[in-house]
Amino acid sequence: MKKALITGIRGQDGAYLAKLLLEMGYEVYGADRRSSDSSYWRLEKLKIKDKVKIIYMDLLEESNVFEVIKENKFDEIYNLAAQSFVHASFKQPLLTSNVNALGVLRILEAIRLFSKDSKFYQASTSELFGKVQEIPQKETTPFYPRSPYGVSKLFAHWITVNYREAYGMFNTCGILFNHESPLRSIEFITKKVVNSVCMVKKGMLESFKVGNIWAKRDWGYAPEYVYGMYLMMQHDYPDDFVLATGETHSVKELIEKAFQCVGIEIKWEEKNNRIVAVDNKGFIRVETDPEFFRPSEVDLLVGDYSKAKKVLGWEPKTKFDKLIEIMVEEELKDLEMLKVK
Ligand code: NAP
Ligand code: F7E
Asked: Per the count of CB atoms within 10 A, which of 51, 93, 258, 272 is most buried?
């Protein structure tokens, strides 16, 4: 039985990947940092909480990382842990860099010194492309990160590649474009919009605020992306792969789609120098607010996944419209459950 370690086990991808690897017959260890919150709601929602072996491993603590990797000799290590919220990285650049950049180096050093046969997956990101140098973006597109998050992930990406080339380690980087699901944290725009729109529909919220509605992203469905991670780790040799849908949509389109899913018509207007969305009864439902803008923005992302398709046979099945429909449907169910409780 193969033994896998997933860091970031409490996160969106950690939960979906754990489920997938358990289905594939792996013994799954989840690295978790200490928290005063004892809930593993995502693992519970996927009904796998009792099947994942939780190990305490904080990426900030070198001796902790060394000990876990030395003692367990995992076949595969998936590093999904990160301070992953771009907006927060402008407020906490040092913490973000320590976890996202040096944290990766701590794991790589542990593998190099104590467990050289462990395969390693690094969660690289489309944020590396930032101010894009080419449309669409692929593995060979030059990087130009636009946030402390993006810069921290740039170090992580290159140090992973460097250890592959310098020490012959099986290190693979998945350059994943945004991927979403009902398990997404509420601070990210898809979940925030879907949750808010569903609350408006149910009369639990009057209106909500967002930032830059013109930003465009390539949004895919998270369960399909963790399958891509798995395929990368089964490939004959380590490499870098883009996973994306090849479609791009703005935050404005996302808001329109979510309202359409719940049967509310909106139209955009300008009021007091701010863009607002008003429903057909004249109520303001969405307002733009500078609080949610970033000091430097990534304006447009759209990925070219043709290498992953050709080499791994990976393809996205769920595109934008379907993704939002899935998220809205699940959110309405969750809110209904809340009401019952
Ligand atoms: P997520 O939901 O934010 O999960 C990240 C996890 O990392 C959380 O469980 C968090 O723990 C953990 N973590 C943070 N700091 C840690 C530390 N010091 N030590 C140990 N664990 C720590 O992120 P995700 O969406 O699943 O993404 C997974 C990975 O892919 C991340 O590295 C992200 O940067 C990258 N990525 C994501 C996307 C995307 O669209 N989702 C796209 C490209 C790349 P707590 O639960 O305790 O906070
Ligand atoms: O923002 C705009 C915002 O926070 C998307 C992470 O998983 O994907 C994610 O990073 C866009 C940005 O995701 C609001 O300015 C407008 O242009 O959902 P997001 P992200 O920054 O793209 C990449 C691939 C990762 O690697 C990251 O870990 O939406 N936007 N108004 C807003 N964003 C948020 N969060 N909230 C707003 O109110």
From this structure: 258
